[in-house]
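Subject: Predicted fold for MATE family efflux protein, 477 residues

User T.R. writes:
Posting the sequence so we have a shared reference for the thread.
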Amino acid sequence: MTTTTSTPTTAAEKNRWYLSAAPILRALVHLCVPMAAAMVVSALYNVINAGFIGAQHDTSLLAAITFGTPLLGLVMAVGGVFGVGGSSLMSRLLGASEHDPAKAGEIKHVASFAVWGSVVTGIVLGGLGLLFLGPLVGLLGADAAAVPATSAYVSVMLVFVPVLAAAFCLEQMVRAEGAARQAMVGLILSTVGNLVFDVLFILVLHWGVAGAALAVGLANLVSIVYWVLWLETHSENVSLSLRWFTLRRSVLQPVFGIGVSELLQAGFLIVTTLVLNNLAAQYGDDPLAAMGVAVRIAQVPEFLVMGVTIGVLPLLAYAYGKGDRERLRSALRASALTVGAIVLLFSGTVFVFRQQVFTVFSSDHSVLAIGLTILVAQLVATVVNGFTGLFTSLFQAAGLATPAIAMSLAQGVLFIPIVLLGNLWFGLAGIIWALTVTEVLVFVAGLIIWLASRSRIDRGLDAGSVERADAVLAEAS
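User M.O. replies:
I've generated the structure tokens; pasting them so everyone works from the same file.
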């Protein structure tokens, strides 16, 4: 077991020290800045990718990418079940191993199960999607004009579902050990690969949206290779070998307990996008094209916030597993203040220069008018969804399946009636603002659930503290 009180020398020991004993601000910088940087680079890539497609001067191509967005939800569903569920358990086991070294031995079983589970599930779902490609494209909401481009984009994405799911899972596992810098490097490698492949497939070979999807899949293969090599050569606790694969209840129950919340969240994201696309399609391709561009622009400040809420999860899980109440509370306070500062600074900046930014990607006046409204709605939602993400990360870190699932259910259950009533009462404006109204209500729900769950969190911390005290007494004896 790595000793956190001694001076760390290896990369693994330094990453462990950030989780266990480093000053909170320094730990947050180590964990969240690389994550936020990688998320921003990824968001900027999404904007640039939309620019590549927009340069083809074909609105149906932008609409095809918007129709294909639910597939990213599918990847999140598959990768999130195994990646988030597995990584939060791994961080808790690392924290618990400070007073019970045997806990570290369980991490290899968790890692092997998570990675191979995501690959196999991705293969099955990708194969089913290709088998029913025609009905799937219709379900996504594509009209006759957008069917060819959407089919090309979706079919290529389905081939790479196992790759994307495995990449998402591995990234979570690397961060579970506190290796935020290595997670960032893998994500940036993927983004750079995306840009290179985009130039080749879209601008040189003129493969359109199929080339864009192929670029995403191949770029994620690059990140997979990097993360696998790093884990195999630097990690003291993780192994991806099949010999560690297990279906023991002690692994399955906590992984799926938290993973189900990710599955529900991603599943509702798919349903939300399907309903949104089908309702917006009634108003033509312009709203869909504007929505695709506006969402990508708003992702820049949103991804900064996600860098904090996702980046802090291993720190929260480690502190919870260790039973360190003060460290958990300090991490939560510092994260909340950081999220608030980011929202005020960056969302405000994007709001002020929204027209100048949007015109870079579309000069169509009808698309611009709709897109600016959508962008404002997205930025308002960003104000609250950062704190909602922090609530969810806390529940996942503590292994509280019911509160995590409740957060996932809240958004999906609330959005459907809100968007349907919004469309009925206010038309396109009601559709655009439905997600914003939903995010505000979900934040309120998260606050209530957090207040109701505090006693459970305290009991979990007390249990970890007792185990640590018992270990100290045994060592003293």
